[in-house]
Every structure is written in C-alpha cells, then in structure tokens.
Write a structure and sequence with these properties.
2 copies of one chain form a homodimer. In chain A, helix 4 crosses helix 5, helix 8 packs parallel to helix 10 and helix 16 runs antiparallel to helix 17. Chain A is globular, with a radius of gyration of 22 Å. Among the domains of chain A are: 208 residues, 3-Layer(aba) Sandwich (Rossmann fold), CATH 3.40.50.10730; 140 residues, 3-Layer(aba) Sandwich (Urocanase fold), CATH 3.40.1770.10. The mean pLDDT of chain A is 97. Chain A has 18 helices and 17 strands. In chain A, the strands form 3 sheets. In chain A, strands 3, 4, 5, 12, 13, 14, 15, 16 and 17 form a 9-stranded mixed β-sheet that branches. In chain A, strands 8-9-7-6-10-11 form a 6-stranded parallel β-sheet, with helices on both faces. Chain A is α/β, with parallel strands linked by helices. At the A-B interface, helix 2, strand 3, strand 4, strand 5 and helix 16 of A face helix 2, strand 3, strand 4, strand 5 and helix 16 of B. The complex binds nicotinamide-adenine-dinucleotide (2 copies). One nicotinamide-adenine-dinucleotide binds next to helix 4, strand 7 and helix 8 of chain B.
Chain lengths: 558, 558
C-alpha cells in the first residue's frame, strides 16, 4: 500500500448545490466537509493534507482520502464508517439515527502520549495529527476563530481598559490558520495590532483575505504605521515579517510596552510549529528531517526567549495572556520557572461563557450560496432579538469577513439557544427558503468537549483540570443522540499529552428526523458543558442549569 | 454534600425474578448489575464499594450509589444517564435505540495520568478507579477470569510441555478477585498450583467458593502437599499465607524451580495493591494514609525482589509470564532493567484468539435462577456442535464453578459466534424458555476494546501498541449500535497511565428491537477487534475478516 503525504497535483473543492452524489444529506455533508477542509481557500497546506494548527490534517494520506470518499459514495443510510487517525478502517451496521462517521484521531495511551512517540508512529504511516477541527472535518477557515478572539479582546478591554480600546494596541505572533484571525478580531474590537510571522506567504494570505491591513518588513516600519494610526484614532493591523522571539526581545530592549501581549505561533508542536531564532524556513524544514531532537531543543530555547520577554512586558504593565498554544509549558520545560505567571485566556476571559454552554457554534451552507448564510444571519437576529453585542458581531462579520470555501458563519451562543436556532434552520431548509441543507458544528474548544489543563480547563475551581471523563462522555452522548459525525481527539491546541477533546457535527436537512436529532444533540452538547462547570462548582453554571431545567442529579437543591 | 466511602451497614443484593422496579429491562439490568457488583458473594470489599483489582469500584461513594439507583428508578426509556467516575452527573434525552447509561471512569489527560495525581483527585472525592468491569457493572466474580486463565495455562502446556500437564506445577501470587481464579484454572488444566497471598481472608474466600483446595501457612507444608499430589498423579492447589516476594526468593534460594511462574498480586497499584516485604496488613493500611510516597517506594522494592526471582526461575527453565498486572514495569521503574525479559501473556498465548475476535464473552441470568444458565450452556453446545474444547470447558464450568451473585457464565467465543449465540438467547427469553432476560457483556480485556502496551497490545506486529484510537472507536460504535450501557476507562489492569479501554453490555429481553440491537452490537464489537488486528498485519485476523465478510475498506485484496 503506497502512502502519499504530498501530492502537488491535488486541487480539492467540495461540490455545491442540491445534487447528491451519496445516499443522503448526512453522508453528502461528510464528503463535502472533508473536501472543504482541503480547499485551497481554506487549508494552510492543502496538498500536504494540512488544514491548520501545525500539522493538523484532514486525512492520513492521499490514499486514505480517496478511500474515504469512495466509501462515503457507497455508504448506506444504516451504516457507519470508522476513521482511525485519518484512515477509513471499517464499515459497520448501525441505524438511521446513529452517526454516519465515527472518528478517533491521534489518541495515545498516556505513558506514550508525547511528540517523540507520536512522530515515530506518524512517520511509519500509523497515525495522523487531527488538531481539533482539521481531522474532524468542521474547519471553516480563519473565521472559525475570529469571534472567539474578538470576544477575548473585548473582555480584555472590559477588565483592563474600562471597555475603551481607543489608541490601544496588541502585540502577537503567528498569522497561520487560527492566528491569522487575530488582526481582524483586534481591529473589530477597536485595537491596533502588530502581528509577527516568519513566513511571508502567511502574511500575504491574510492580506488577500482582508484579515490584516498592512505588511511590514522592519519593526520601525511597523511601529510607525501603528503609531500614526493610533495618533489619528484609527485601529489598524500590521503583519511584520520576522521571528517573534527576536521582535519581542527587541521591544523589551527598546522599552516599548504594548497594551496587550499574546502569541499564536504553533508553539504546541516544537518540531513543526515554531521557527528557532536565526534559522531560515528552508533550514527549519531540512533540519526537522535531519535532526528532530536538535530542532525541538532550538525551538524551545527561542520560545523561552519569547516568554521571558512576555513576562517582562507583563511586569511593565501589559495585559499578557497565553492564547492557547502551550508556549508557557514549552518555556517551562527549558527552565523558565515563572512561565505560568501570565494566565491562559480561558480562565481569565472565557470561562463565564463556558459556564452557560456558550462557545464557538458554527454552521455551513452546503449549497455554496452566500445568500443562504445571510438568511441564517437574519434568522439568528430574529430569534435572539435582545442581544446588541451579538447583532453587532453578525453585522461586522458580514461586512468584514471573506468566506473561505463553503460559506459559513460562527456565532458564540449557548445552551439556551443552540437547539432553537438549529431547528429554525432546519425549518428554513424544509420550506425551501434555503437552497440546500445546513451543516452545524463547533470547535473542540468548547464548553463541554475538552479537558486541557493548560488551556480550556486551566485552574478549575475544584482542581479537576485534568479529568478527561467529561469530553469522553460528551462524545458518547452525541453519538447516542444521533449526531451526523462525532470525533475523539488527543493533543489538539496544546499538543501531545496535554489535551483530550471531542467534536460533533450534525446536518439540518429539513426532515422531521433531523428536527428530532437537532433538538436532542444541540441541547445535550452544550448541556454537558454546563454540567461539567456546575459540577466543578461555578455558580453561573449552576444558575444556568436551574434556569434551563438541565437534569443534573447531584446538583444541590435538586 | 457528604461523601461516604465505607459504610459497614450496607448489604447489597440485586433483585431476582421477572418483576420490574424500573421502566424496562434495559434499565432494570443496569440497576441489578450495579447491585450485583456489590453483592457480598461477588465483591472483594463491598462495604467500601470495592469490587476487585486493587481499589476497582462500582460507584464513587455511597451517596453516588444511592443516587444512581434513584435515577435508574425514574429513568425514561428515551433518556440516558451519564456516570462520571462513579457519580451520576446528568440525564439527557436520547432515543430507544441508544444506551441507557454512558460511563467514563478514571480518565485523565495524559500528562497528568499517573497514580499521584489520580490519588489526589480520588481523595478530594473527584474521581474513582473503575478498573475494568468494576466501574462498568459487568463483573461476575472470579469466574469472569477462570476461562481466560485456563486458556492461557492450556496454551502454555501446548507450547512448552507438548500439551501434557501431568505432574507439572505453577507458582503464582495473589488470590484476590481475579487472581483467585488461578488455582481453579490450573487444576482444570491439569496442573498443581502454589498460590501465595498475604491476606488470609482472601485464601479463606477461595476455599469457601471451592477455587482453591488447601490452605498452608508454611512453604514446607505447601510443597509437601504439592509433591505428594504430583507423585500420585493428582493436580491440587494450595493457598500459601505469605508474601510473594519472600516466597519467590526462597524458592530461588532452595533451588526449587516450578514448571510455570507467574503472578497476580495487584502490582498495578503500588499504593493499594502490593504489600511490601516485612510489613503487616495493618501497617500497610496505616502507612498508605500516613506515608503514601514511602509506601509506594517500599512496594516497588519488594516487586523488584519478586521479579528478579522470576527472572532467575526463567533462566532455570520455568515458563515465566507476566499475567497482566504490570509488575515488570514497576520493577523496571526501580532499576530491574531486564524486567521485560519474560513475556506478557497476551503476545505469548492469547493474541491468536484476539485476531478472531475471541475473548471473554459472558452472560448473566437476571432471573437469578441457575437453571437459566444451564439452559444457555446447552444452547451454546447445540449451536457450536463441533468444538470439543469448548464443550469440555462448559462441562467443567458447570461442575466446578460456584456461582457468585447472579448466575453467570463465561465462554471465549469470537466474531463468528457472538451475535448468533446472543440472538438465540433472546429467542429463549421471548419463548419463555428462560425465566427472565439475559444480560450479555464482556471484559475490557478483549480483542478490540483495549490499548495497553504492557499487556493486551504488547509487541504488536506493526508497533502500534500505544495507539488508543481503537478502544475509543469501539466505544463510539457500540454506542451507535444500541448497546445498553457503554463505558470508557483508563488505567485498568496495569494502572494509571498504562491503558485505555472500553466496556459494553447489552440486554436480551426477548423483543424484536433487542434482536436487531444484538445482531448489530455483537457483530460490531468483536468486529472491531478483528479489524484492529488485521490493520496491524496479523494474517489470522485478515483471514477471519475475509471469511466473515467484515467490511474493512483498506484491507489489501479488497
Ligand atoms: N486560542 C484558540 O482559540 C486557539 C484555537 C486553535 C488553535 N490555537 C493554537 O494557536 C496556535 C496557532 O494555530 P494556527 O492554526 O494559526 O497554526 P499554524 O501552524 O497554521 O500557524 C502558525 C504560524 O506561526 C508562524 N511561526 C512559526 N514560528 C514562528 C516564529 N518563531 N515567529 C513568528 N512566527 C512564527 C508560522 O509561520 C505560521 O504562520 C496553535 O498552537 C494552535 O494549537 C489556539
Ligand atoms: N490477566 C488478566 O486477565 C487480568 C484480568 C484482570 C485483572 N488483572 C490484574 O491482576 C491483578 C490482580 O487482580 P485482582 O482482581 O485479583 O486484585 P485484588 O486486589 O482483588 O487482589 C490482589 C491480591 O494480592 C494480594 N497481595 C498483595 N500484595 C501481596 C504480596 N506482596 N504477596 C502476596 N500477595 C499479595 C492481596 O492480598 C490480594 O488478595 C491486578 O493487577 C489486575 O489488574 C489481570
């Protein structure tokens, strides 16, 4: 069996429109979303099957990709395909209310759950890194993270600047698949941003999709652009070509302190995700192969430089936060004992939302028609009439976010709203108001779907950060409820050994059966998030559970 | 919320008969099986909720136990209860073909997946150790392991003694919940056995249930009993009160070499499962609390003594095997570099069975009537007429195994037979031939349900020992297929950090819906085992897949 990771002849684009090439819309959706993850407009390195987040892949090899598509085209509505780290391994009889695809990616028995062992297996063709939405086929381009980043930056402003971002600026690193959302989110929230990336093609990609406003090749040039804008009361973003470790250290040296400091290089993967200081991209690629151990060591040393600079900038008054790439852990590994002195973004800014099951809910129009998304935007406003912040988000998103691949929308809503909104979309499909079914999903970075002690579950009230029963229950329950595909991953976001998480996707095809499934799955899925936080003792979650009538047997007062 | 681990007033016994106390037989089965796991006849320390295998529990606390029972009594046939490390945390809407209970026990994010962190959380009341069948409510007493142990000993004889066990004897340690099956399995296979245990109450328990023939309090006495029996061509078993490390070292000293050497103390849990040399049971219990670190260190030192003795006995010609308690790893941790020189029992003796999906299939008569089991015994013989080894097993089991709690039977069968047999049982329930429904399940130690590189997946052909995508897919698929309850555990058998595994239980209640579910789930479940072994390159598994028509998309020649 040959094993092809890179095929330069490939150009993948999902079908559009209302014509089926498979037995039904559940299966069609899986096929289109897999393909959409590898669309040139969507993926970071589509011909290498890499969607985003370091080496986050959609399929293990091109042979595996072809076979998945082939199986989906013959799959029956009462069968389920099993995908093991991006490879289709079995087809089994289930029933119509069961998921059509079940996925497990990158999972390793804990004692062996590290990058060394993973990379060995990956090299042998036995595994694939699924990241979060790459291997679970619900990545929607940088938009997928824009709102989360925007909500975080708004929350930073509320906590540190009385809500006023005028003249404020943010320093960050990384303009990759997720990181590329930062400049847009920053300017949407009213900040200017300086974003450093070593790879000029990444900056150009963000310019092209209007996520970043300017490119600069020297720090002076970048600072000048930003200072001018700030003086004029405008918010702009600048992508600076350079190494984040160099630039952060240089700012410390020059005694220039941004208002907010964070980072979104792929620090979670020291072998593939972080360019050591002084290396060229070519050297990096070459030495990954010829000297992986040395490469990892060099990357971690540079991360240590960057984290030390971040700590100094924090001391000098910058609101400093880890933005979910595990850079603190990497620096700590090589002796930066105080690396965890600045907080992760979840406990600092996002947890109150998670307590209500609020997280990165998203949907995709299988028709391929942007109008379908605009109609759903309007429907959300109609059904949630009293939330100006959300309306503002939807307006800005429509205005400023270019679609990548199939048109999609992200919208942070919670237990109270998810099933309601989804069922309304299903009605719109049924009535013909939309041209084709809608796919509904979320990030694995969500309220009930992840255990990640350096990120989503950092500093839980009861100390249960590392308990991963929760995401496993989430995946089992979504399977039981009748989601269209369900995934269980390890190592997303923060890398091997540091997280376990699950994904869910469900199709609104306009049928009554879908209506039933949507009302179960999109109640249960955020419900497990409220449950997990209520169990940990958060009052917001307990109140939400009581208000929404969630059945939590051991909640006090029940 | 109070948290009670030990309640000496408790005496649990499941209901018998055909009367329901819950909404249907699926839910009734969960309730009875939970209770049966804590029956005095079944569990090792029922009042502490400990079923077997060190601190393997059925529920997190007595409060959690009571609440689980209460929820099951009100659960609707379209609802699903979530259990997180032995605590009932949520009730969610699903549908009739979905599991009624979903369980996740002892799961930790890999970087934190060790006994130290687990014990901390366990102490805080945030977790529970589920072992394999303890927290997943399908433990059936020592019988559950008798056949596996018997098959292993028979296989040892085939490989080392031309199948002739006459006059041969086995040395082992541990007469606990699982280990207690060893003497019976040994004599069934024609060996004599010397089994060392430090706890006299455990030896007495095995005498009472006829698993062991004699008790001895000195090595001389024990050896004399065995030598006499061997001289007379009889096979007997002796439980020797003593510390395994002392006794193994003493045998080396005296230059006495058994034919087979193994061990089944709870070495996987150095804090609770292995008494250090020179300590009394009371000291052990006291120092677990007052000095956990010192206790673990002392236990590992004694294990090192025992493993060194095992290595010497191996050199002197004994067939030596690790019987799945991770004692080699523990010894290696404290410097016994060659600990892994003797093999684990799975690669050495059991894997060919796993390749065909053959493993510890089991069932329980909810009526409580032994006659129901005898009738199923007869049905198995009728449906598998051409397997004298299996018939012999069933005859011996009926004759020599005392039921513990609800009557149950274990029988190692595979992909070819499981669904067929289960559907026949369902017919017998339907026709009234049996007095009540039958519960069908298996150990987590099975063909497709576990990743455990020091045990079930040791030395896989392709090096995929540590890949745990497989048991996760198994659990998701069993949930999708409509099992009655499904569980995902970590750390069973070999302890924290070393394994991930899943359980499945399904009820044959005589309905057509059950017939459908049984034909799916009991095909799929062993099917994932054949799939996993075929994917790893085992010819026996590939042949089995082809013969049985398993749909494995990337199997060559497909
Ligand atoms: N906070 C969140 O919500 C969230 C969500 C998803 C992912 N993440 C994490 O964010 C990180 C980035 O994700 P992504 O999808 O953008 O990854 P990516 O691999 O697509 O992009 C990483 C970018 O960092 C750049 N880079 C590497 N080393 C650099 C250096 N020394 N200096 C400057 N730039 C450098 C690369 O050129 C690349 O453009 C990952 O660790 C990911 O796991 C966070
Ligand atoms: N091979 C298999 O199929 C299989 C299946 C299940 C469990 N296991 C493993 O086997 C082990 C035993 O399981 P169990 O359910 O019998 O456990 P258990 O905790 O019920 O029994 C362990 C026994 O070992 C005795 N013991 C402890 N230290 C001793 C010492 N130093 N010398 C002599 N005896 C000592 C204890 O008194 C106790 O009776 C566990 O590690 C378990 O994980 C193996």
């Amino acid at each position: 069996m040959s094993f092809t990771r890179l095929d330069k002849s490939r150009k993948i684009r999902a079908d559009r429109g209302a014509e089926l090439t498979t037995a039904n819309w559940q299966i069609e959706a899986a096929k289109r979303m897999l393909m959409n993850n590898l669309d040139d407009e969507v993926a970071e390195h589509p011909q290498a099957l890499v969607v985003y987040g370091g080496i986050g892949r959609a399929a293990r090899s091109w042979e595996a990709f072809d076979k998945i598509v082939e199986v989906l085209e013959r799959l029956k509505p009462t069968e389920t395909l099993l995908v093991q780290s991006g490879k289709p391994v079995g087809v089994f009889p289930t029933h119509e209310d069961a998921p059509r695809v079940l996925i497990a990616n990158s999972n390793l028995v804990p004692e062996w759950a590290n990058w060394e062992h993973f990379n060995e297996l990956d090299k042998k063709g036995l595994m694939m890194y699924g990241q979060m939405t790459a291997g679970s086929w619900i990545y929607i381009g940088s938009q997928g993270i824009v709102q989360g980043t925007y909500e975080t930056f708004v929350s930073v402003a509320r906590q540190h600047f009385d809500g006023n971002t005028k003249g404020r600026w943010i320093l960050t690193g990384g303009l990759g698949g997720m990181g590329g959302a930062q400049p847009l989110a920053a300017t949407m929230a009213g900040y200017s941003m300086l974003a450093v990336d070593v790879d000029e093609t990444r900056i150009d990609f963000r310019l092209r999709t209007r996520y970043v406003d300017h490119k600069a090749t020297s720090l002076d040039e970048a600072l000048k652009l930003i200072d001018t804008a700030r003086a004029e009361g405008r918010a702009i973003s600048v992508g600076l070509l350079g190494n984040a470790a160099d630039v952060y250290a240089e700012l410390v040296e020059r005694n220039i302190t941004p208002d907010v400091v964070t980072d979104q290089t792929s620090a979670h993967d020291p072998l593939h995700g972080y360019l050591p200081q002084g290396w060229t991209l070519e050297q990096y690629l070459e030495r990954q192969e010829s000297d992986p151990t040395g490469t990892v060591a060099a990357a971690k040393q540079s991360m240590a430089v960057q984290v030390r600079a971040m700590l100094t900038l924090q001391e000098r008054g910058a609101a400093t936060l880890d933005y979910g790439n595990n850079i603190r852990q990497m620096a700590k590994d090589v002796g930066v004992d105080h690396a965890f002195d600045f907080p992760g973004f979840v406990p600092a800014y996002i947890r109150p939302l998670f307590c209500q099951g609020i997280g990165p809910f998203r949907w995709v129009a299988l028709s391929g028609d942007p109008e379908d998304i605009y109609k759903t935007d309007a429907k959300v406003k109609e059904l949630i009439p009293d939330d100006p912040h959300l309306h503002n988000w939807l307006d800005m998103a429509r205005e400023r976010i270019s679609f990548q691949g199939l048109p999609a929308r992200i919208c942070w809503i919670g237990l109270k709203d998810r099933a309601r909104i989804a069922r309304a979309f299903n009605e719109m499909v049924k009535s013909g108001e939309l041209k084709a079914p809608i796919v509904i999903g979320r990030d694995h970075l969500d309220s009930g779907s992840v255990a990640s002690p350096n990120r989503e579950t950092e500093s839980m009230l009861d100390g249960s950060d590392a308990v991963s029963d929760w995401p496993l229950l989430n995946a089992l329950l979504n399977t039981a409820g009748g989601a269209t595909w369900v995934s269980l991953h390890h190592g997303g976001g923060v890398g091997m050994g540091y997280s376990q998480h699950s994904g869910v996707v469900i199709v609104a095809d306009g049928t009554d059966a879908a209506d039933q499934r949507l009302s179960r799955v999109l109640w249960n899925d955020p419900g497990t998030g409220v449950m997990r936080h209520a169990d940990a003792g958060y009052d917001i979650a307990k109140d939400c559970a009581r208000e929404q009538g969630l059945d939590l047997p051991m909640l006090e007062g029940k």
